[in-house]
Design goal:
The protein is built from two helices and eight strands. With 192 residues, it is mainly beta. The chain has one domain: Porin (Beta Barrel). An eight-stranded antiparallel beta barrel has the order 1-2-3-4-5-6-7-8. The chain starts with a helix and ends with a strand.
Length: 192
């Protein structure tokens, strides 16, 4: 991951940890089954930090999933890795139950072929999410979530004829886009 993305992710994670209280907290582990259906391994943790607040951290990524496009050569398959820390506000006063709204930060590295070009780079940006959690049992929940955000990206594009240059060259593509940054149906197991 590029140095600016690492620093940005570290600062945002530390800021999200500020509301932690010393009281007993609930901890949950979760996985997004929609991501698993696309061969994208993922894992998330959620920690209840207050009466209406929780902190969620998710990581997901894949190297050459089954849907990879190798049209530009065997070394040009799809790979990406992302992390998303998020602070959630629960409207009913009981975290991990019913409706919530969240503020998150997505940071990612990517490497994928698209329209005859290989795209390599990093992306990061803030986002908003909304969701609903259904309690299936004492320790098992089903979470529905969606979100969008502003994604800043910087990277390089290569055609199939161009050899890949050294990693330390300057990016030739950068910008920002308003984009969906979250969609999921997750199974949640409450550990304590």
């Amino acid at each position: 991951m590029a140095r600016p993305v690492k620093a940005y992710l570290l600062v945002m994670t530390l800021l999200l940890l500020l509301p932690l209280q010393g009281a007993a907290q609930r901890l949950a582990i979760k996985t997004n089954v929609l991501s698993l259906a696309t061969a994208t391994p993922n894992l998330g943790f959620e920690l209840v930090t207050g009466e209406r607040l929780s902190l969620s951290i998710s990581a997901f990524g894949s190297a050459n999933p089954y849907w990879s496009d190798h049209s530009l050569g065997e070394e040009t398959g799809t790979s990406f890795f992302a992390m998303r820390p998020e602070i959630r506000y629960w409207f009913n006063g009981r975290p991990l139950t019913r409706f919530y709204a969240g503020v998150n930060v997505l940071a990612a590295t990517y490497d994928f072929p698209l329209w005859g070009m290989l795209h390599k780079g990093t992306a990061a940006g803030p986002g908003l999410s909304f969701g609903y959690v259904i309690n299936l049992g004492k320790r098992l929940d089903l979470e529905f979530t969606s979100g969008a955000g502003l994604l800043f990206y910087w990277g390089k594009r290569f055609s199939g004829d161009t050899p890949l240059p050294a990693e330390d060259t300057m990016p030739d593509t950068k910008g920002y886009k308003l984009t969906p940054n979250q969609l999921g149906i997750s199974l949640v197991y409450i550990i304590k």
